[in-house]
Amino acid sequence: MGIDKRILINPSILNANFDDLENEIDKVSSVSDLLHLDVMDNKFVPNFTFDFKRVTEIVNFSALLVDAHLMIEDPDNLAPKYAEIGCESVTFHYEAAKNTEQVISDIRSNGAKVGLAIKPNTPFSDVAGFMSDIDMLLIMTVEPGFGGQSFMSDQLPKISQARSHIRAHDGEPIALQVDGGISIETIGQAAAAGANCFVAGSAVYKDENPSSMITRLRQLAESNFKS
Ligand code: DX5
Ligand code: ZN
Question: Rounded to an integer, what distance in angstroms lies between the CA atom of residue 137 and that of residue 179?
Fold first, then answer.
């Protein structure tokens, strides 16, 4: 299962129990598309999650393919290494890269799909020129760094703008991912604006039944998405 499905729900384990990740991932594996793994270095964002060794372990034991979201400095040198260890997709931040074109090509040549992420203050126009080279655009709907923040509805026009671009370039089947504050209350708006790939952290892991929450989120995404 890759990232080319019409609707994808990728749970984030940022707010799961880090001491029991195998079990936490098992709770969602049968109903999720990919596992969203937030890699933070305490430099690009003021928080630390997993080092490279731990990410390698997670990639190896996870029943789900991994959608790595790198919130790190120096993706130019580090992003290809995450592709090399078998992440299905590797997403890096446009704001952190020195040579975006080169990072895209280095991730791809190391065998992963390529995601490009932008923070809330970065306009779509900054990355429009890279759209034909990537597999996924991630529009952050919170400031990266922490789970459990509120969805920023002021990002909806940017999502619509990116979807219009994708529609206008029919030959580019790019996934449009949103990450931050996605819940039962917000997923419909994001889908209606044109997002088709949804990261959900606290909505899933704070629920007493994570897998049924994913199914509910998927139904809302399906019924609101307009391609
Ligand atoms: C934030 C991370 C998100 C986070 C989302 O920097 O990139 O993936 O886990 O968590 P929620 O869904 O709680 O906003
Ligand atoms: Zn993320």
Answer: 11
In tens, the pLDDT along 187-227 reads: 999 999 999 999 999 999 999 999 999 999 999 999 999 77
Give the distance (Å) from ligand 1 centre to CA of residue 186. 14
Global pTM reads 0.97
Nearest Cα residue to 95 out of 63, 121, 68, 125: 121
Cα 94 to Cα 82, 87, 128, 139, 202, distances in angstroms: 17, 19, 11, 11, 25
Regarding the beta carbon of 180 and ligand 1, being less than 6 Å apart is answered: yes
Within a domain: residue 1? no
> How many distinct structural domains can be found in the chain?
1
For the CA of 145, the nearest atom of ligand 1: 6
Instruction: Please report whether residue 179 resides in a domain.
Output: yes
